[in-house]
Amino acid sequence: MPSRRAVFLDRDGVINRDSPDFIKTPEEMILFPGAPQAIARLDAAGFAVIVVSNQSGLARGLITPQSLEAMHRKLQRAVEEAGGRLTGIYFCPHLPDAGCACRKPKTGMLEQAAREHGIALSESYMAGDKPDDIACGRAAGCRTILILSGQTRRYDPARFAAPPDLICPDLPAAAEQILRESEGAPGCLRADNA
Ligand SMILES: [Mg+2]
Ligand SMILES: [Zn+2]
Predict the structure, then answer these.
(1) Closest CA relative to residue 171, chosen from 149, 192, 188, 151
(2) What values do phi and psi take at 91, rounded to 5?
(3) Structurally, what CATH architecture does the domain formed by 6-193 represent?
(4) How far away, in angstroms, is 127 Cα from ligand 1 center?
């Protein structure tokens, strides 16, 4: 039986600033203050921290595979400088209407990561800034965290088929909450009284 716990993280709007024009180069990928440190804390606590990102800019020809790799090296390096590591980085390169199994809200990336790293999805978290991130995490059986530093600035229940389990202002607060929960204490706002 797989037993490792993971924290799955959406990338844009969670780890780095999002942009309506897509993040196309390492220079355009501006990490949020405290994000690499938050990932390092989760890693140190024993979680596999795994990025799961929709990157349709690849299929659109806006992002080259080389540029995406350079962005991921930049991210991994920042996490390593903070004393941690990302266990994996998964991305969907397809267009939204391609019908692939990997684009969130589909669960393909989480399932692949679970197979490759022995992850227990029901013991894991999925954090993201959009309804599709929450729907994906929920469908995979994870605990879900809505992060308000990206495209969603305020929780509006009408936009969510099902509410997130937790709502946190940013990734450092989400990491704090996850670490608190793994020690059994309360923290960030619960969605049912947001
Ligand atoms: Mg996002
Ligand atoms: Zn895909």
Answers:
(1) 149
(2) -140, 150
(3) 3-Layer(aba) Sandwich (3.40)
(4) 9
Amino acid at position 36, single letter:
P
Q: Distance between alpha carbon 108 and the CA centroid of its chain, in Å?
A: 14
* Cα 11 from Cα 78, distance rounded (Å): 14
Residue 115 host element (H or E): helix 108-117
Task: Give residue-wise pLDDT tens across range 160-193.
Answer: 998 999 999 999 999 999 999 998 655 566 666 5
Q: How far is the CA of 118 from the centre of ligand 2 (A)?
A: 22
Kindly list the catalytic residues: 10, 12
Give the number of the ligand closest to the Cα of residue 55: 2
Phi, psi of 87 (to 5 degrees): -70, -30
The DSSP H or E segment spanning 68 is helix 65-81
Is the entire prediction scored with pTM above 0.90?
A: yes
So where are the chain's domains?
6-193
- The helix/strand/coil state of 91 is strand
Encoded tokens for 72: 């991921």
pLDDT digits (tens, 9 = 90+) for 55-83: 999 999 999 999 999 999 999 999 999 99
SS3 state at 42? helix
Distance 13 CA to ligand 1 centre (A): 5
- Are 137 and 8 a contacting pair, CB within 8 Å? yes
